[in-house]
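Recap for those who missed Tuesday's class. We walked through two folding examples back to back. For each one, the amino acid string is listed first and its predicted structure tokens come directly after. Nothing is annotated here on purpose, so try labeling regions yourself before you check the end of the notes.
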Amino acid sequence: MVVKKIADVLRNGRGFIGFTVAGDPNFEKSVDYIVAMAEAGADVIEIGIAFSDPAADGPTIMQADLRAAAAGSSTEKVFDLIAQVRQRTAVPLVILSYTNPVFKYGYDNFLAKMTDLEVEGIIMPDMPLEEQAEFATLADHYGRALIQLVTLQSKDRIPDIVKQAAGFVYIVSSLGITGARDNISTASRELVAAVRERTTVPAAIGFGISRPEQVAQFDYADAVIAGSAIVDIIAKNPDNAVADIKAFVYDMKKAWR
């Protein structure tokens, strides 16, 4: 199985990136739900490692973290899950983790495991730019992408942030925490323009995107990211969410057309 690359699947824009927490509602179902996203057309899938104090996440994902923790989540179990996912799909995978689990596992060991499982990138939302040097150097050595986040507060820091951009640049559309929103700021257009002045790495917009009708307003980006909406689907029907996940991803992709 030839695993696809993020740059290849997002090259022509109109991409969709889905997110779920590994082990939610349990590890067996979680594998099926990740694969369902891929089968429905997700271009990239972010797999979250449950964390006890997810500062950037709202209640929907925090509850998913608790469900995954109750299912016995650990970094090693997440890697086992990814190995099972990788047997069934070549979709590009990205890990989303807070820094502490990665540090405890060992930066070198973590990146080596990502390489073995052909996980292309990692997002660590709590790792400040000023503290990235060690991990970024190792990530470059292993050929893994340390995906950078650009927020509405980044402004003058954008040139420094995108110097290290790889995989895709995660444009945070709204201030605050993750979660579905009825109204999403249009200021992200300026962020995408500022990023594109300095890099050809694809720009993907996330935070709050939960409905197909919201997708069209981001036609200036290369992809949209939806996480809380998928997690909510799983929460409502934890034992049998495959069909609903597929329908959601299909509708989000169709909304680009």
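Example two. Treat it independently of the first, because the proteins are unrelated.
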Amino acid sequence: MRPIECHLITPNLDLSILKFPLIIKPRFGSGSRDVIAVKDQDELKNALSKIDLNKEDFLAETLVEGMEYGLSGAVVNGKYIHILIRQKLLTPLPYRQSIGNLSAKEILEVTRYMQKVSTRLNLKNCLINADLIITPEGEPFIIELAPRPSGHYLSSTFVEIATGVNMTKEWINMILGKAFSFEPKFTKHAIIRYFDFEGRVTAPNFEILKDELGIVKYECNINGVLGKVTDGKSIINRGYAIIVASSKQECLAKADALIKKFKKDIK
């Protein structure tokens, strides 16, 4: 179900057989750790010079073009139930780190595809967190899937704000034999925006901005000098803001306005 080339990188791998562009990533892990895109042999050799193949396995696989999404769902008695699909806002290549998620309407082709994936993997009862790409041809391509809730404040906070579904609560109810439902009660236009700054910045007063920008929940832990955002670890502890608005465009505009409220300190 992943029609791409994928190679385990070993000291004996013939690099001349690889077709570019490629994604280089650890065989195991999460949070976009050490994931990097390379477009030619020179960039590949530079990337390989920075990793230790004796410590862990790395893969080289075809870079799939298209819009990237995150997905929250559940499988109950083998049936996939869609909760929320989230359009990802990403850093520019070579890194592929999410700096935000924007709620989106259900894409029926994705729901059908996830049912096929769930059946192929013989999933029976679990929560689902997946990353996928919709190619320019409209075909879903799965990047990764885990039978668990998503992190980064998504399942615990964002999904409930955008859909009214508390995934953990509904899962516990199901396990206890109580009434439960993973079906969205609504789908609001919402965005969760992380803080992808570099250097030293001063955060704004969120309480003053809440009404103006539609901020319904936030956490800000910015202090000290911030490094470059390259993976989940480098951004997630800084905090986030969740904004609800009347449209996708308004969500993006208000999130952009919030980011501009952070002041860069020049020292």
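Answers for example two:
The longest strand covers residues 79-90.
Helices lie at 41-48, 108-120, 154-163, 167-175, 206-213, 248-261.
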